[in-house]
Amino acid sequence: MFLELGHTKLIAYGYSKALTLECYKITKFFLKDEHFAMVQQIRRAALSVHLNLAEGASRRSAAERRRFYEISRGSIIEVDTALDIAVSLHYISADQINEIGELILKTFKLITGMIRQSEGKILTTAHSTLTTP
């Protein structure tokens, strides 16, 4: 918000923020009984996507970036899985989460691309280290 660092310019950052906001909005419809269970888990996982993406982008080494991006991607999978259970329990309908579904897919693909890109940098760095005397 105040630090206008590189992560704020990432396309995935915008999508992960939108995903987080939508998860907060949709979980308002869940049963009050779920407030300290599924609601909090979905919100934490969605926020984790956004926060780990930002933290990963701030890391200097490709290996560290990749690690945070992988955690971020894992949290996307967690959100997706929890929403599947929520639909199965009829807390929300599949129609209600179409927008979140699109955000999940887009964010997942973007972060997967970022992981692949950082893997390439790791391999390049490792290769150059091996070939230098």
Quick rundown:
This protein is mainly α and 133 residues long. The protein has helices spanning 11-26, 35-57, 62-88, 98-131.
Share of residues in strands: under 5%
Kindly state the mean pLDDT as a whole number?
A: 88
Q: What coarse outline follows from CA principal-axis ratios?
A: elongated
Number of DSSP helical runs: 4
Query: For the CA atoms, what is the radius of gyration?
Result: 17 Å
Order of helices and strands: HHHH
Low-pLDDT stretches: none
Tell me about the largest β-sheet: none
Q: Oligomeric form of this entry?
A: single chain
- What is the end-to-end distance? 45 Å
Helix residue percentage: over 70%
Overall strand count: 0
Structural class: mainly alpha
What does this protein look like?
- With 133 residues, the protein is mostly helical.
- The protein is built from four helices and no strands.
- Helix 1 runs antiparallel to helix 4 and helix 3 runs antiparallel to helix 4.
- The radius of gyration is 17 Å and the shape is elongated.
Key features?
single chain; 133 residues; mainly alpha; 0% strand; elongated
Please render the helix and strand layout as text:
Layout: H1 11-26, H2 35-57, H3 62-88, H4 98-131
